[in-house]
């Protein structure tokens, strides 16, 4: 049995290194190369991140804004896209108007629950009714809106 990494004698009497030693040396060099490359990447990223943060903060300090009440005229909300039409999202404002005409109490309930985010209990307190009545009316309003939006 021969030991890995131990030089052997060739038929001509010259010593030759084992392949295991070459393999270890190659792995060590590859590891050093990877370490150097990683160090270089970290240094470059650190330098550019620092420069970016300085540039962005300098530009951001020049920005000004004015906060005004109400909706902005410069914001565009697209309407009637294919997904909106398919799922009925673009029909919601019209359906809510019809619900208001059908039953104002149900319309107020949808406003409080869906747009206001109130719980059943909180909605009952605002409307002055029981949680059971709110639950029943909530199911009625949801069913009515579903039928209105899906054409049933």
Features:
two-stranded antiparallel ribbon, mainly alpha, 6 helices, Arc Repressor Mutant, subunit A, 152 residues, 2 domains
Describe this structure in words.
There is one protein chain. It contains six helices and two strands; from the N terminus they run ββαααααα. It is mainly α and 152 residues long. The chain has a two-stranded antiparallel ribbon with strand order 1-2. A hairpin with a 5-residue loop joins strand 1 and strand 2 (15-16). The longest helix is centred in the N-terminal third of the chain and has 42 residues, at 19-60. It is elongated and about 105 Å long.
Summarize the structure.
With 152 residues, the protein is mostly helical.
Helicity, as a percent range: 55-70%
| Neighbour order of strands in the largest sheet | 1-2
Number of domains: 2
CATH architecture of the largest domain: Orthogonal Bundle
Largest sheet: 2 strands, antiparallel
In percent, how much strand structure appears in the residues?
A: under 5%
Strands, count = 2
Principal-axes geometry comes out as: elongated
The radius of gyration over CA amounts to 36 Å
- Could you tell me how far the N terminus lies from the C terminus, measured between alpha carbons in angstroms? 87 Å
CATH topology of the largest domain: Arc Repressor Mutant, subunit A
The helix tally amounts to 6
Question: CATH top level of the largest domain?
Answer: Mainly Alpha
Structural class: mainly alpha
Look at the structure and name the CATH superfamily of the largest domain: Winged helix-like DNA-binding domain superfamily/Winged helix DNA-binding domain
State the oligomer. Answer: single chain
Low-confidence stretches are none
What series of H and E elements makes up the topology? EEHHHHHH
